[in-house]
Amino acid sequence: MDFSYPVEVEQFRAELRAWLATNLTDDVVAAGRRRDPDDAAFETLRAWNRTMADAGWAAVSWPVEYGGRGATLLEQLVYAEETTRARVPLPLNVIGMNNIAPAIMQYGTESQKRTLLPRMMRADDIWCQGMSEPEAGSDLASLRTRAVRDGEHFVVNGQKIWTSLGHRADWCQLYVRTDPDAPKHKGISCFTVDMTLPGIEVRPLVTLNGDTEFAEIFFNDVRVPENCMLGPLNGGWAVATTTLSHERAGAASLYTGLQVRLEELAADLANSGVHGRPVLEDTATLCRLGEISLRIKYLELLCQRSASATLHGNDASGSSSLAKTVWGETGQDLAALAFDALGATRRWADYRLTSRSLTIAGGTTQINKSVTAQRVLGLPRG
């Protein structure tokens, strides 16, 4: 694997580090640590998003004409490494920035690009993604939400679930079935939907730890203008493929995020004891820490392999799917270790609960293993 950071990429790293050292404040970091921020923390993060946007650091991978820096893949990896290590909060529109914006850039009209993208980058508008349904989670093509043309509008009826930030969203990238008679991958269309339209009902979902970051959304005879369609009629599957392919673009944040958590756990363990004995003198605990550290290093190599494949014009989807699987399972094991060693302390108890989603969100482990089997191992479809 040929993978290294050229001088100009290291200069990019140094510039970013210097800017963060000057502008990133403790209150912003504290707000970003809250998985489900209250209104005050949410506005702190919105102001931070605007600060980053004004300085050109909010969306480095975006083209310059849309407010980005046109960063190379290696610069994007460095950006993810440095912002994760510095504890920079994720953008409020993290799904919008990483997934929805690339689809708008590729399939949107010029009006959609000029109107929607700048406000998304600054978090002036909050976005959610209407994909999952009660009977269509990882299998997006099984969605049932319908949109029927009525003149210059489409009338939408159906339900979406597990919608991140659905209760705060101003816009939704919505996938609906527009041709029920077509093969299930070919009868889907995508829309950008104004969440203030009549007939939209949002119900926050309360998770085990009391957070309300998810919501279920009901569409009851919602009239969506046809000029809000993103991509061609019945061409939503291609839009979705574009969207999901960018979900792996922040590969460096996978291993760097786990490295940061492992360092935090080691620091907490260093100050803890059981029955008068330091936790870090326990052989079993040290063995688990070492194994997780080794797996994180393996994950880093996987992510770099995926980046190298992209740089050399090869298919990176197989290694990306494998990296997602390793990340989810390693994160769950790290959370289990923290809970076993430290008990129900607030931070680690929350992580223990939320870690259960790591093998589901962004593509279930079962789906990713199927991709790995077919594209890496060359096994036939089951």
TrEMBL record:
Q: Which cofactor does it need?
A: FAD
User: What InterPro entries does the entry give?
Assistant: Acyl-CoA_DH_CS, Acyl-CoA_Oxase/DH_mid-dom, Acyl-CoA_Oxase/DH_mid-dom_sf, AcylCo_DH-like_C, AcylCo_DH/oxidase_C, AcylCoA_DH/ox_N, AcylCoA_DH/ox_N_sf, AcylCoA_DH/oxidase_NM_dom_sf
* Pfam family, any one: Acyl-CoA_dh_M
Q: Which UniProt keywords apply?
A: FAD, Flavoprotein, Oxidoreductase
Molecular-function annotations in GO: acyl-CoA dehydrogenase activity; flavin adenine dinucleotide binding
Q: Which residues form the Acyl-CoA oxidase/dehydrogenase middle domain?
A: 128-222
Q: Which residues form the Acyl-CoA dehydrogenase/oxidase N-terminal domain?
A: 8-122
Q: GO terms for CC?
A: plasma membrane
**Annotated ranges, domain Acyl-CoA dehydrogenase/oxidase C-terminal:** 234-377
What's the family? Belongs to the acyl-CoA dehydrogenase family.
Mind telling me what this protein is named?
Answer: Acyl-CoA dehydrogenase domain-containing protein [Sphaerobacter thermophilus DSM]
